[in-house]
Specification:
alpha+beta, Jelly Rolls, Arc Repressor Mutant, subunit A, 2 domains, four-stranded antiparallel beta sheet, 10 helices, about 40% helix, globular
Amino acid sequence: MRAQPIEGIERIEAWFKGKAYAMHRHDTYAIGRTLAGVQSFNYRRSRRDSLPGNTIVLHPDEAHDGQAGTGEGFRYRMIYVEPAFFQDVLAGRALPFLEGGVTTDPRIAAATETLLQRVGHTLEPLEQSDALAELAHALAAVAGMPQARGKGDYFAARRARDYLHANFTRVVTLEEVETATGRDRWSLSHDFRTFYGTSPHRYLTMRRLDAVRRMLLSGTSLASAAADAGFADQSHMTRHFLKTFGLTPGRWLQIVGSAPCDCSPTIVQYGPLAAAYS
């Protein structure tokens, strides 16, 4: 099941048996709750196992895969949050990082309760905003982050993010970004990773892939979606799509395009629904 994305937050619930999805990475936080079974994944060079009631917190740009830890399969809910939402709350502090990928900390469990409700529940705008703020503060507290801002120029990084967001469908030069931010490219790259968890180019590529997903769901062809989103060609887009989501655009569209909203979860023996988002 998947909810309609609202304000940059995506919410899904899924069930898998066997292998769920290949190694991939994305530029959002992936935060979820295992509901049944054993949810296993490789993350930061180790296998992790999440049991029912555990909370999963995957940092942006960290590679991971997914599979059932037992023959019974597993069921989970997950939200995908753009780092910029947490930055709005943390006001320039470095992004929280929780080592391990799985936590039983009650502060994180409590802070995710609202956002990890059943997919059929529609979150009101203020409800979602308050829940994101609570989650950002809980992540920072559990990560042991200081109250002071991280080292770097947060406002330059935010100007770079806004500029890339507004111009992702075309080639953006380093000189343009330097001019737009008033920061040299090397310092800006460090700032961007500190405050948004990924590189400027990776952020640009992800915005193009977001546009491709929207266009594919509306019926646009692969070639047209690739060109309109700013990729050199369809094969260029497909390579990035596979590396990011763990499956090809055609396979993603086949699964996600038919996934129900607000109804019983789609059972997938192999070929991940969640790889499109996890």
